[in-house]
Amino acid sequence: MKNTLTDVSAGLGERFCSVRQQTETLCEPLTPEDMMVQSCPEASPAKWHLAHTTWFFETFLLSEFLPGYRPFHPDFYWLFNSYYNTVSEQPVKKLRASFSRPSLELILGYRRHVDAAMQKWIEEGVTPEAARRIELGLHHEQQHQELLAYDIKNAFWSNPLHPAYREGSLQSPSSASAMQWIGYEGGLVEIGHGGDGFCFDNEQPLHKVYLKPFELASRLVTCGEYLDFMRDGGYERAELWLSDGWDTVKAQGWRAPLYWFEAEGEWRVFTLRGAVALSAILATPVCHVSHYEADAFARWAGTRLPAEAEWEIAASGLPVEGNLLESEILHPTAAKTGEGLQQIFGDVWEWTASAYLGYPGYAALPGALGEYNGKFMSNQMVLRGGSAVTPESHIRSTYRNFFPPASRWQLCGVRLANRQE
Amino acid sequence: MKNTLTDVSAGLGERFCSVRQQTETLCEPLTPEDMMVQSCPEASPAKWHLAHTTWFFETFLLSEFLPGYRPFHPDFYWLFNSYYNTVSEQPVKKLRASFSRPSLELILGYRRHVDAAMQKWIEEGVTPEAARRIELGLHHEQQHQELLAYDIKNAFWSNPLHPAYREGSLQSPSSASAMQWIGYEGGLVEIGHGGDGFCFDNEQPLHKVYLKPFELASRLVTCGEYLDFMRDGGYERAELWLSDGWDTVKAQGWRAPLYWFEAEGEWRVFTLRGAVALSAILATPVCHVSHYEADAFARWAGTRLPAEAEWEIAASGLPVEGNLLESEILHPTAAKTGEGLQQIFGDVWEWTASAYLGYPGYAALPGALGEYNGKFMSNQMVLRGGSAVTPESHIRSTYRNFFPPASRWQLCGVRLANRQE
Amino acid sequence: MKNTLTDVSAGLGERFCSVRQQTETLCEPLTPEDMMVQSCPEASPAKWHLAHTTWFFETFLLSEFLPGYRPFHPDFYWLFNSYYNTVSEQPVKKLRASFSRPSLELILGYRRHVDAAMQKWIEEGVTPEAARRIELGLHHEQQHQELLAYDIKNAFWSNPLHPAYREGSLQSPSSASAMQWIGYEGGLVEIGHGGDGFCFDNEQPLHKVYLKPFELASRLVTCGEYLDFMRDGGYERAELWLSDGWDTVKAQGWRAPLYWFEAEGEWRVFTLRGAVALSAILATPVCHVSHYEADAFARWAGTRLPAEAEWEIAASGLPVEGNLLESEILHPTAAKTGEGLQQIFGDVWEWTASAYLGYPGYAALPGALGEYNGKFMSNQMVLRGGSAVTPESHIRSTYRNFFPPASRWQLCGVRLANRQE
Amino acid sequence: MKNTLTDVSAGLGERFCSVRQQTETLCEPLTPEDMMVQSCPEASPAKWHLAHTTWFFETFLLSEFLPGYRPFHPDFYWLFNSYYNTVSEQPVKKLRASFSRPSLELILGYRRHVDAAMQKWIEEGVTPEAARRIELGLHHEQQHQELLAYDIKNAFWSNPLHPAYREGSLQSPSSASAMQWIGYEGGLVEIGHGGDGFCFDNEQPLHKVYLKPFELASRLVTCGEYLDFMRDGGYERAELWLSDGWDTVKAQGWRAPLYWFEAEGEWRVFTLRGAVALSAILATPVCHVSHYEADAFARWAGTRLPAEAEWEIAASGLPVEGNLLESEILHPTAAKTGEGLQQIFGDVWEWTASAYLGYPGYAALPGALGEYNGKFMSNQMVLRGGSAVTPESHIRSTYRNFFPPASRWQLCGVRLANRQE
């Protein structure tokens, strides 16, 4: 039995190191000052992400499972709590921008302290329950890697000098491959996670749903197609929008996706590699659009957004590959020519028409970790498939991401479904 | 053929008179000054309801179907438009409180003018299409009758003198009947409206859904049960709440349902018949709670809110009867002792766990009337069953009402469903 | 001694009737519904003005001086309190729009009840102290007459139909008389109220100030001159504005005085007599400008606003006559040709460059009436001279009116002073 | 003539180095991360202060006076502009927290670049006009030194760990010296700056004012005295407050000065040297109170705040010495026992009863520098005397500081004046 646990631990140890390292690698282009910026209410400073992901392991693993574990700092258990009311009170989110102390150096020391304790523990062998929770901590950290990328993009966009996070230009073919409709027969099908591997509580239980026959677009909507929508008055025609969406368009003055701006008579797009001409990336998927914009675009196109069950049935069985974080492109790329569904994993999170709610029989994890997913099941929409900054080992066909419908600071885009009779 | 139409019109004419008269009857206890008050952003002045329901018939029936119809006033087509962008621009909602002109007298003249034209037309015979749209206009007016009751309640609540809308006290037994669980087997069932009678576009199409076996509570949650929740720290325990709900509780300072207030050491409840002691109505259904409160109560009770499909399957086939507007009680009453589901129709709108979205294959009505329902399918939750101020001829088992989850100014309450394995 | 008091009372009784009647006369063109409207946070419904002015006499005179006086209604002492914290808590100001009850009829009954008691008391003879306080109550009522005119103007402006308060057109010559500079030698002078007649506490004590020689414009700035400022980019040039003023211009989107609007290619001005073409009233004084706009205009013109002491020295000894409420024009009119200072009293309140602060040695009235003026000595600017809706018996050269610098809903305008070396 | 200029330059060069160095000395305890924090809308990050003060010399001296001067960076002329609309558009103030780039290192390079050019120029000799403007730039930098101290205090206060800026404890005697009244005879006096030395435009012109005889308190109000006010219900008694002040107390929930907090049953005070027990510093001057609080305290004490002219007459002729920045205490200290006026310079800025307005005949500097003072003459109150973080060479008896009346994040305190008959 001991052996088995050690075996589990062996792979786990390697994965632990790899995921933890990935977070720090993402910070390599950043200065300590960059890592202080919190440029919008949704965002957190990069330094905070470094600390909070470490806090997760210290709070939910080391302090809980390892008798005699000594916390790195007496205040960190509440200082770097995000929203787990069951654990402690938390600093108001916007205060994270004032955390000049502890210094980056101390936070990196915190990471080393926790990593060392974790690695020693994993080497010595952990119980299956602990292994499952470590896996949860690693997926948690991967979610923050993605947030870190979004947050630093917004930080650099807010900086009037618009610095680039990484050098190098984005490549794109001059035109997109033709969009095709792929048909599915539907019927009484099963969705949700039923296997042995890791999943979040919100992917369970596996359950039956009934679907009418449906068709999905073979690829994502491109910047060029979205520009057509804009030129056809997309942002001025109330009849294309949900009521809340139209109110948001007017209140926020939206007239293009986030990070699109006009300069010297042309549209330009701010990316993690700096600003590029929109004309150079017309064939790439449109991104940084809200659910409202995705929905209005679909209505304009005489189509609709897919239900999450439709998306999952279509994605089920497809290999997890695509333009994900490991490609290091950090931005969606044009679809390859070819048969069948393209761009299912990676590139952009795909807005669905489904509200984020618990599956029938859903039960949150017990204790504080029950706050991870369940309490957000209100006023949010489901997105599927991961983005160009999602780690490959983090995504799967049953994965349910969720954002409020007005959110735009993530890499969110649009796949269409055909209207039904 | 002519005869058939006249036959249709005959019943229609009577129903038209009856519904239109009902609105004015609701205004009888009100002075012209009462009918000016707009006490919260959700509400409208009673005078505006009188005018806007008339505008509906003038705009979508008389002006569209009757050649040569002369509008009552050249400005009313835009002045009393609520949110139909396709028809015209509209005054900002909060401005409705400034409509001292046109006077109440002129608005009543407007009603008489439109009623006369409508009645003459109906007597002469209308096409089936027109008859369907007149029916829609009548259901629209019934919805505004309900809103009028909510709005005047809020108006009188805002008035520091807390006047009563109607005289007479509320009756209630001292204790509620026992709550029982009624079981349903689920399976692949059909919901939505499939028959010939009137329904809104959002009730269609009839479609299949798969349900696991489920149990519903035999009656609504009572004020007494809700008071237990409060006394058990319901409003202070974050773990019971959706995250958005908890934020709302803190931001709004909620600590009881709307219209509950403490005076001289006891809880009192403001109703359309003035304030009553909570202790006198403990057996009546709790009302004026938001979706957040309903959901937190259910979690506290170890239960959940029903899905809208579960509710509809349970309600299907039951007679439409209960404490509705025609009972003239204007407030929910205690459940009768008895077998089976109680209080399905009337008393309070029952919050479900379902987001308000289009059914698979949903299509909005063509033209401006397509703005009636579809554009609100975002950030709202479905409620079922009607309330003590819903007209009996307005409600049915497939009826889908919808409000944002933080809404409390309507007669909304709670029916529980049993947690599933 | 008794005789003397009766003598005083004789004139007082007549003045009491006359002022009280004036308020009701102002309401004659209004319906009960008009008297419910509260269209901006600064405004109150006309019905509230009717009640609050009555409350003043009941609270500070009848209840305090007349043993055994029985208040008209047990709740009115707090319901119609405006801001006298020493007397009672008050309803939040914006709630005044919800006071549909008490009805207008009941408020008029309240007035008759209080008027009868006051008149009887005055006839029987009042003490000098009571007489002084009655005089204060009458001046208080006159201030509310002016507010009532402003509030109903804003109410009718907010109404999308823009009804007129009174019929009849405004007359204006086609061009204004030439503006001249009138010189004053300054020196060590005295300002403030030193005589026997009525004054507010903020006009006292009489005190010395030192003034350099100065020059005042012979007449008010006209609409035509203000239009020149606008056409010269007045609202787009930051260098002309105080910093707070520039922030306000941008935040509010100001580009013209309040009540100016563009329709069919020309500027129009909404007045108490409905909308008129700006071109028809170019020679009349500009009004409904804030202190910020008055200050920016003066800077643009190479001039400045007068100090309140300069204005008072210039106005001192001039007869109180001009376009005041009694002229029933209700809007400023063009200056007459002639020598010397024109338009000193009436037409528009003239913004000064002086902050509203207590004079050296200022002491507020004792008790609750001390809240009348003193507590507002912060963030406000002094205005002088009265307006076209100020009663003639209410204004004098020492009178200090005060508004926050961003206020525009009153009849405020501009008189220039020459820059000094 | 050349010689004379060089002579002037000699002293100027030394002063230039000394003031510029002082700014960097203030930053020594700070990390690059500390220098990113902007914890309230009034504050700026320390790094921004370093850059903006340099921008002043580059923009108004080097670029304007030195032909061929090459700016350090092509974007800095607009990036580090604070509010000079005449120079360029500016980034919105709150964006300063996003300026992670340029790095601190680059900003320090900017300082060295500009300092070298300035020093070379000064050594070569500057015109009197340039020398005057350099002097203005140095005073500008000293103002930002003071702001930097306030801003970093607020930053560390916002940080939930409450770090200390400097080590070392504050010393205080256990009780304050007795407060005495010092009498002045007033009369027709002159205030304002009339000499040859440097002054801001708002201190001019020298002009006559008339003052009644008055008395000033010999020392500042202490924390102990302020605690008495609090214990006497100071924050709960509306009658003590200006109306705007009372609204602010309620809206902000004020119940003590800024930086006072309760912990373990006692009041503590956060300072630049960390938190100290209030009981240990009762004899020190109260600070971080708004004008509203100063005014309410004075009213409670049966006194008033001094007019700025009274303060200036009293301070005129006194030596500029006291607890200023050079003492390195960074917090007000208890008054010494002794005769006459104490604590006139240093310790805390003293709120006066005077609104910040232009003196008679005031003229702003020509061009962009005219935006320095004049445009803020609205809604602000005058403060006098400097604080414990004001450089000694920066303050004088004619110096007029100004803040909005609700401001509390500066070292502001209270000196009383005796009420006049």
Major pleated sheet of chain A: 4 strands, mixed
Oligomerization category of the chains in this entry: homotetramer
Strand content of chain A: 5-15%
Q: Most extensive interface: pair and counts?
A: A-B, 38 and 38 residues
Give the distance, in angstroms, between the N- and C-terminal Cα atoms of chain A. 58 Å
Task: Describe this entry's structure for a reader.
4 copies of one chain form a homotetramer. In chain A, the strands form 5 sheets. In chain A, strands 12-11-10-13 form a 4-stranded mixed sheet. In chain A, strands 5-6-7 form a 3-stranded antiparallel sheet, with no helix packed on it. In chain A, strands 1-4 form a two-stranded antiparallel sheet. The longest helix of chain A has 31 residues, at 128-158. Chain A is an alpha+beta fold. Chain A is built from 9 helices and 13 strands. Chain A has 2 domains: 4-158, Four Helix Bundle (Hemerythrin (Met), subunit A) (Up-down Bundle); 181-419, Alpha-Beta Complex (paralog of FGE (formylglycine-generating enzyme)). Chains in contact: A-B, A-D, B-C, C-D. The A-B interface holds A 83, 85-86, 188, 207-212, 238-239, 241-246, 291-292, 307, 353-355, 357-358, 360-361, 370-371, 375-379, 405, 420-421 and B 83, 85-86, 188, 207-212, 238-239, 241-246, 291-292, 307, 353-355, 357-358, 360-361, 370-371, 375-379, 405, 420-421.
